[in-house]
């Protein structure tokens, strides 16, 4: 698939989930995402491993909603501003499933995006400004280096004998080191790209980026998943508009 197709498909699948806070629509979309993930080149083992941050974020969002969601129905527990009721628990479950339904498609559809192909698609198909395209390409490329930088910094700290400390302190120092490294690399990258004329609006392209029948089929599948999730939710009467 063209990287542009992946981005558009992600928007199509996840945007309807923002219209309703219910378990059914998010659950249907999540099930379809897991079923169709191998077609996007992501097997279930890889999907589970890469979705660990999403799995950790879902309970956190659910707990906060359970404690501070709109109180309705039977009250199970209350403390200061926290009130656990039937409605807050229902909202908490819906939010957790929706976090998974929004986060896991991101893992599936962004798993194999090549930075160069992404830049070609953004510039030639979507006709986005050159500076935006170059920034997106650079950002995607640097994100792929995150794991390498983390491992290199960890080895360097162990070699210097400063890695033997509490895990919390170790994590904070590593994150700060990555922040400093990212700022330095970003400044150097911006200077190099400006010097090579990457900010110019007049450019030629070594490769032509096109949408194929596979891309059209993928977009139709994404539309089908979105329509199915909302349709099932409305049919069973669980659709709950976000503002309601």
Radius of gyration: 22 Å
**Distinct helical segment count:** 10
User: Count the strands?
Assistant: 2
Mean pLDDT: 82
What this model shows, in words?
It is a single chain. This protein has 244 residues and is mostly helical. 67% of the residues lie in helices and 4% in strands. The protein is built from 10 helices and 2 strands, in the order ααααββαααααα. It has helices spanning 3-14, 23-36, 44-50, 52-68, 86-109, 115-124, 130-143, 146-159, 167-195, 213-235, and strands spanning 75-79, 82-85. β1 and β2 form a beta hairpin. α2 (23-36) runs parallel beside α5, α4 (52-68) runs antiparallel to α5 (86-109) and α6 (115-124) runs antiparallel to α7. The longest helix is centred in the last third of the chain and has 29 residues, at 167-195. The mean pLDDT is 82.
């Amino acid at each position: 698939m063209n990287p542009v197709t992946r981005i558009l498909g992600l928007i199509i699948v996840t945007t309807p989930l923002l219209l309703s806070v219910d378990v059914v629509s998010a659950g249907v979309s999540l099930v379809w995402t897991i079923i169709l993930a191998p077609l996007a080149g992501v097997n279930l083992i890889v999907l589970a491993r890469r979705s660990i941050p999403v799995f950790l974020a879902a309970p956190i969002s659910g707990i906060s909603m359970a404690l501070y969601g709109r109180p309705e129905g039977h009250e199970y527990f209350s403390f200061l501003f926290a009130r656990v009721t039937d409605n807050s628990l229902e909202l908490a479950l819906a939010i957790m499933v929706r976090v998974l339904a929004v986060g896991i498609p991101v893992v599936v559809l962004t798993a194999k995006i090549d930075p160069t192909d992404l830049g070609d698609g953004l510039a030639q198909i979507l006709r986005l400004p050159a500076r935006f395209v170059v920034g997106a390409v650079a950002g995607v490329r640097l994100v792929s280096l995150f794991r390498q930088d983390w491992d290199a910094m960890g080895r360097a700290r162990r070699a210097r004998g400063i890695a033997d400390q509490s895990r919390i302190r170790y994590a904070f120092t590593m994150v700060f080191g990555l922040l400093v490294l990212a700022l330095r690399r970003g400044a150097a990258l911006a200077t190099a790209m400006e010097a090579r004329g990457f900010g110019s609006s007049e450019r030629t392209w070594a490769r032509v980026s096109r949408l194929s029948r596979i891309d059209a089929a993928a977009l139709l599948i994404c539309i089908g998943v979105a329509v199915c999730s909302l349709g099932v939710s409305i049919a069973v009467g669980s659709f709950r508009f976000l503002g309601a």
